[in-house]
Amino acid sequence: MTSPTSNSHESLSTEQLNALAKQIKDWGLDLGFDAVGISDTDLSEHEAHLENWVAAGMHGEMDYMHKHGVKRTQPSKLVEGTRRVISVRMDYAPADIRNAETMLAQDSIGYISRYALGRDYHKVLRARLKKLAQRIQEKIGDFGYRVFTDSAPVMEKAIAEKAGLGWIGKHSNLLDSKTGSWFFLGELYVDLPLPTDQTATNHCGSCQRCIDVCPTQAIIGPYQVDARLCISYLTIELKGAIPTELRAKMGNRIYGCDDCQFVCPWNKFAQTTKEPDFTPRAELTDQKLVDLFGWTEEQFLRNTEGTAIRRIGYESWLRNIAIALGNASPTAASIKALKARRESATELVKEHIDWALTQHQAANLPTSAEELSTHK
Q1: 55 pLDDT band (50/70/90 cuts)?
Q2: How do the domains of the chain map onto residue ranges?
Q3: Could you tell me if 270 and 173 are in contact, meaning their C-beta atoms sit under 8 angstroms apart?
Q4: Nearest to 59 by CA among 305, 312, 230
Q5: Which residues are annotated as a binding site for tRNA?
Q6: Taking all residues of the chain, what is their mean pLDDT, rounded to a whole number?
Q7: Could you list the active site residues?
Q8: 33-63: b (≥16 Cβ within 10 Å) or e
Q9: Backbone angles phi, psi at 37, to 5 degrees
Q10: What pLDDT, in 10s, does the model give residues 223-248?
Q11: Which of 44-58, 157-171, 285-299, 341-355 has the weakest average pLDDT?
């Protein structure tokens, strides 16, 4: 936490703190956030849920979910002096979000989760949150704060729920009745005793569309997601081989998965982003798998520069696309691409290429260019 050189803000009256909270929300909207809320730091209700989830091993290889202990569920243990959390939301849905689902039916296309098609949200939100902190500082003088955007042991969804920005749905994403779930979250931990907002209420009701639609049945029950089965985890967090029994279920999803958001009734209210940085990049949006698989590492780094995609690395990128090619209808171009890439592939990628080729053979489909040229 940025430590204050003095504690002048400690003398702020209740009236002044109320006025400051309103100003913070106004400044946040001026900076481009779509919603701003304030919560206290009591996350005890969520602590047991997290502990049980980790104890069951459902975090997979995400060791960071438990290695920080109670720092994740007790903000003042992570950042000493934290008294409140300012939670912010930025919508990222592109203009064609309602048509994006049709890409899943086109198995020759590489589907990338819509949040990752523009500039890396970590950078965008972090910069805006720092500006918000600066405005507060200009108003009241030095105070303690620290900025977070999915970058530390922070329970951002639980905090956002307490700040009134939405409720945690059965798919574990945050939902808002006015804008759905296509948005990013960020936090500003502060040592100011600001007034807090009312916790959002849950409006999922008896709906379980997200549970029913999940390709790998990763949502094992309401509000329970087994990350080890989740396509977002498999394509982004997992660094090794993707379990064989899950590969065919991944379809053409090469980075993340949006299925549970597509079917959520609340997303009919989704707001198109006003942030130019979140505009989808043409070279990433709904491109042919064969073309994406043909990228050199240099092309991968260039085309994903400044995006969240780059962090998975080139090897995982090829691994994911190999699976998608194995799930796609065979063409001369796809078979040729798989075989050509195999010659120089790492052992990890080679394993997934072999699986893809075997998929076509198991279905009695042609796997050579000669056979495919006569295949109807």
Answers
A1: confident
A2: 8-190, 288-376
A3: no
A4: 230
A5: 239
A6: 92
A7: 150
A8: bbbbbbbbbebeebbebbeebeeeebbbeee
A9: -140, 165
A10: 999 999 999 999 999 999 999 999 99
A11: 44-58
